[in-house]
Fold this protein.
Amino acid sequence: MTDIEHRVRARAATPPPRGGARAAGRGRPSRRARLGPKLGRLALFVLPGLLAYVLFVLIPIVMTAYYGFTNRNPFNPPTRWVGLRNYTELATDPEFLQSLGNTLVITVIVTLLANAGGLLIAMLLDRATALYLTLRGMFFTPVVLSSVVISVIWQAVLRDDGLLNSALRGLGVERPPGWLSDPGIALYSIAWIITWQMLGFCVVVYLAALQGVPRELQEAAAIDGCGPMARFRNVTWPMIAPALTINTVMLLITGFKAYDQIQVITNGGPGTGTTATMAFHVVQTAFNGNHVGYSSAMAMVMLLLVASVSVAVLRTLQRREVTR
Amino acid sequence: MIDARTHAWLRPLVAVFVGAVFFLPLYLVLVNVFKPGADIVPHPAALPLPPTLDNISAVLSRPDHLFTYGLINSVAVTALSITVLTVLSAMLGHYLARSRHVLAKITLVTLLCGLMIPAPVILAPITIVLKSLGLMTTLQGLVLVNVGYYVPFGVLLFMGFVRSVPLELEEAAELDGAGKMRVFWQVVFPLLRPASASVLIFLGVWIWNDFLTPLIILGPDSGTTVTVGVYRAIGQYQSDFGSVFAFMFLATLPILLFYLVLQKNFVKGLTGGAVKG
C-alpha cells in the first residue's frame, strides 16, 4: 500500500505536462486547449478501473445473456442459436426447479432468522461495558471468517459421528438426527449455518441503529405512559428502519447466492440435489457438465430473480423509512 | 423487553449464555487445535492441557506444502488486489462524484448494477475472457478479476466520502496552481482515509476468504489460495480433526490479525455507510 502510494505521490508531485499547459493558458482557455487535460484526466482517473469492470463483469454478463440462447458446450462444437429452448426446458426441469425451491427456502429462513436474532441480540448487548463489548466481538467473529472455514467447523459438529451427536449419545439419545445425512433435515442445517454466519453482521448494524435512537424520545414516551413494548413499537422500531433495510437486502443477496456451504459440506446431497442451490446448480452444469449454454440460461434466471427481489424489497423498505 | 431496574441481573446472565452457545463451535476449534488428535473425539470440549503444537507443525511440514504455498498465493493476491482496488476506485469514485456529465451518470448506474451480479452467474464467461488474454490459471488473472468484480463496491464507498470533502478545498488548491492529479493525491486522497480503510478491510476479508473464484480460476494444477487449501485439506485428512482445525486456524490467523489492526476504522466505516445509505 504505502509503497505504491509513495510512488504515485512522487509522480503526482512533478507537474504533469498537460496540467502545466493548462496553468500557463490561465484566464479563458479555448475549448480545444481545455479538451487536452480533460481527456488526460479521464484516461487516468476513469479508464483503468472501468476497463477491468468492462472486461470481467460487463462483457461476461453480455456473454452469459447470449450463451443462454445457444447450445454452447466447449467440448461439443459448433455452438448454435437455439432461441428460447433453454428457457422452456428450464421451466419443466425438475432438478432446476428443486434448486430454485431450495434457494428460496434458504433465503427466507436466513432473512427472517438472522434479522430477528440479530435485533434481539443487539438489544441484549446495547450496553457499553467491557462484558458487552467482548460479546459483540464474539458475535462478529464469523463475519470475518471464510464460509469454507465455517462450513468445515459445522460439518465437524453436525456430521453423523460429529461432536453434537456424540454429545447427544452421551446424554442417552439413542438415534440422534442425521443433521447433514437426512434429506429432510440437511437443507435446514445449511440454512442454519448461513444464519449463524450472518448473525453478527446484523447485530452490528442494529447496534449502530439502536445507538442512534435519542434517549429523550424513549424518556418522553415513558413519561407519557408507554410500557417497554409500546416504546419499542412506536419509538425504537420506526427509528431503526434503515438498519432493517440494509440487513434484509444483504441477507437476501447472501441467501440467493449460497454456494460455498453446499460445495464443502453436502455437494448437493444427501440423495439427488436435496441441498443444491441455484448457484451450485449453475456451476455444476457449466464446469462439470460443460453445458455452458444451458447453465447460462439458468444463471440469467438467477440474476433476474436476485435483482428484481432485492430492488422490490429495497423500494418497499425504503418507502417505510421515508414515511415514518 | 426486559425491565432494566427489576431484572438488572438478568441481562448479563442471558447475554453470556447466548454468547456462549453462539461461540461454542469456534471454541471447539480453538481448543482442539492444541490437543493431541486421539483426545479430540472422546473429550471435544476439554481444555487442551498440556497444549501441544503437533497439529500446527504437521500442517506446516506437509510434504506437498499445501499450506505454505497457499499462504504465499493468498497474501500476494489479496495485497495486490486491495492496493489496486483502493487506488483505482478512489480515483474513479472521485471523478464520478464530481462530474455532472451525463456519461458519468450512465457509468455510475452501470457500475452499481454490477453490485448485484453474483459471481457464479459470470464465472464461465470470465474463464473464456481470461483464456483469450492468456491469463487463465495465473495469479495475475485472479487479481484482475478481483479488481473488475469489486470496483463497483469501492466506487460506491468512496463516492459517499468524496461528497463530504468540501469542493472549495480542491478549488483553492487548483487556484494555487496544482494540477488535477496533485489535487487528488495531496488534498483529496488523505481526507478519504476512513473510506480507504473500509475498502481495504472489507475487500481484504472478502478476497482472502473467497472460495469459488480462485477454485475455478487457479484450477487444480497451478496451486491454490489458502482458503481453497482448507477445502483440499478436508478431503485428505478425513476425520483427523486436529490437522483440519490447525489448517483452518493458520489460514484464518493472518486475515483476523489484519482485521483486528484496522478494526476501529472498519466499524466506523460500516456505520458511516449505514447512515449515508
User: Anything to note?
Assistant: Chain B is about 75% helix and 0% strand. Residues 10-52 of chain B form one domain. Chain B touches chain A through 92 residues (CB under 8 Å).
